Amino acid sequence: MKQVFQKPESLKDVQTHFCPGCSHGSVHRLAAEAMDEFGIRAETIGVASVGCSVFLYSYFDVDVIEAPHGRAPAVATGAKRARPDRIVFTYQGDGDLAAIGTAEIIHAANRGEDITVIFVNNTTYGMTGGQMAPTTMVGQKTSTSPYGRDQNKDGYPIRMAELLAQLEGVGFSARVAVNSPKNVMQAKKLMKTAFQYQVEKKGFSFIEVLAVCPTNWGMSPLAANEHLGNEMIPYFPLGVYRNTSNL
Amino acid sequence: MRHDVFIAGYGGQGVLLAGNLLSYAAIHEGKNVSFFPAYGVEKRGGSAMCTIVFAEGDTGSPVVGHPSASIILNQLSFDKYAAKVKAGGVCIINSSLVNCEGIDLPDVKLVKVPMNQIALELGDLRMVNMVACGAYVAATGALARPSLEEALKKTLPERNHRLIPANIKAIEAGAAAAQG
Amino acid sequence: MSTKLFVKGNEAVAMAAIEAGCRYYFGYPITPQSDIPEYLSRELPPLGGEFIQAESEVAAINMLLGASATGVRCMTSSSGPGISLKQEGISFMAGSELPGVIVDIMRQGPGLGGIDASQADYWQATRGGGHGGYRIIVLAPSSVQEMYDLTMQAFDLSDIYRIPVMVLADSVIGQMKESIVANPRPVTELPAKDWAVRGRREGQSQNVVKSLKLGDGEMEAFHWKMHARYQELADKECRWEELQTDDATLVVTAFGSAARIARTAVAMAREEGLKVGLLRPITLFPFPQKAYTQLTRHCKRLLDIELNTGQMIDDVRLSVAKDAEVEFYGRPPGAGSLPTPEELLEQIKKHYS
User: Fold this and answer.
1) Euclidean distance between CA atoms B144 and A70, whole angstroms
2) Do B60 and C339 touch (CB under 8 A)?
3) Which residues contact A237 (CB under 8 A, 6 or more apart)?
4) Which residues are bridge partners to C139 per DSSP?
5) A16 SS3 class
6) Which residues of B touch C339 (CB under 8 A)?
7) Which residue numbers of B have CB closer than 8 Å to C's CBs?
8) End of a domain among C180, C198, C233?
9) CATH of the domain at C262
10) Tens digit of each residue's pLDDT (9 = 90 or more) over A165-213
11) N or C terminus: which one in chain C shows less Cβ crowding within 10 Å?
12) CATH architecture, domain defined by B2-179
């Protein structure tokens, strides 16, 4: 019988701790598929961040360093400089990358570190219980913005893919989403491009993935995916914002 | 034998270079050396001072309360530090800039050398620190003058080695003036 | 006799790091330690090494974490405010059992403080300045030669015990120039870094460097394991220097720059016929408790001298327990307030009986 679907080799054959409908499983799979395609699993060092993504080492079958909150790009910088022949990627959430770790991501990108950053934007702090994130939508209610995010007091959600695309050190910056089959196909393609940048030593690559958090949003998985399409994508447009080598 | 010498002046007089020169001379003689610099926050024109301790054995404290020898290059340093020289010690002053009329330093040998004047006569005011070092070795005998000449090779950057003969002359002139 | 070099304390640290095989340095400028990054930014690239001037001390310590996790020797350096920022990373390195050398050229504090010599950060260094209850090895050089030798040893100790090591000095030792012998790296048997994250390679099991420990009993087991390691350090790695303590009725105890000034004060006291000695801890953690235990069998009075209002004295008092009296003379730092040997001699005389 012809096998038409299987688990990527770069993922372990285990059940995840993620909530029903969570996007992390899809994003893990896309990253693992890209690693499989380039045959780099045994060469890869993952850098886990703090948040739901911390258990990277439980799911990816690669060596992993766990970074302090927000510091994954600095940890990845140290690892990549020490082992320039390895593939180093970070996997970070929005609180980790766009709040406490803003300095680290900006400067790793600006130095043009030869690493790949996977940024999962679900507009909330998932693991700590759904608090307001730097990417939380205006008006969105969270456990620390019970009246909804107020742009006058809390500022506007940060668009990281566009922001990093302004930096000369960045090779590739794109935003994708995993809320529909069509968007997943595009995400798969651009995830591969992000890793290709590092494999071909073309510079820093950044891929922002719009994701859902049904548990903390208080929505069903279906409603959450619809919300992503209707509310998030208009504010966080999908697309490639920088692609210096035209890969 | 443990020797200590304190050097003070204003920034630009070559205080730290003089300290380095004496340090290298002592190393050339096989001694252990501690050189402890201190200076104001200004990059130029502030005060500059350093202490050098050299000995066959342990150099001990780099901080010296009462030095056995002081080289004082300007009035401000004289007013502030000359009285610290310990009894039986030597205070070598740049008499071109320091007026020590009416100042009594009991039990301290005062060696007055018109360092600016000598340096100018040799053609370059910047050699005032070399004149001072020459005066120091002549007044104390703590280091041999040829060691200073040897130390110039290490103290001056290679591009300035062509200036070594002129510096040797300044050291000699300082020594001669100190011997009076 | 080996040729003597004339080197600044901070430069001796950088030279020793290179001799010890360190090729990765991550730092941020701060007075009075900037000679270290300046030296390494010049010398590491030609050796195939990496120098990064990080965007912050926080980033620098995390770069150290990342490089160390891959198994290479690496170093960072800073002073007061910067060391405070590094505490997050040091705690994570301690929790992840990562080696790494951190040089702290102390300045005055709290806050921005000042740049003159100070021993204000003994507590921060020896108590594990970050969260979670951990210790790191702390070495306190008292001369430029020791800046060189102890930095080299720091790398070995860090690799052997998988604990970050701090070299703790101040601007007296860091800015002073002295004649030194640049000793070659000693041959030390080091454990293989089979825990390092290098890419798992085909057929090898996954390596993970982490400090999150959520398994039943996992954290408790970790703490007892580290506790045993600290005990092992106390048994095997305590270092100290004793000077004329055999017949002393008063022993001065001090570390780093304060000990350096005290040496001359003790020599002056001896010249006057006073039976005074010096006990200088070289490892501040592990603290050389046994040296004090032995000493107090015959010496019943100690004079602790520090460039602060009394920090090491906590460890001294714990070490001597009730077997001796501990007097204190402190000079909290500030421009122009370094004590002179003459002033310390006065204190010695005051407490000598």
Assistant:
1) 61
2) no
3) A175
4) C167, C283
5) coil
6) 63
7) 20, 23-24, 26-27, 30-37, 58-66, 154
8) C180
9) 3.40.50.920
10) 999 999 999 999 999 999 999 999 999 999 999 999 999 999 999 999 9
11) N
12) 3-Layer(aba) Sandwich (3.40)
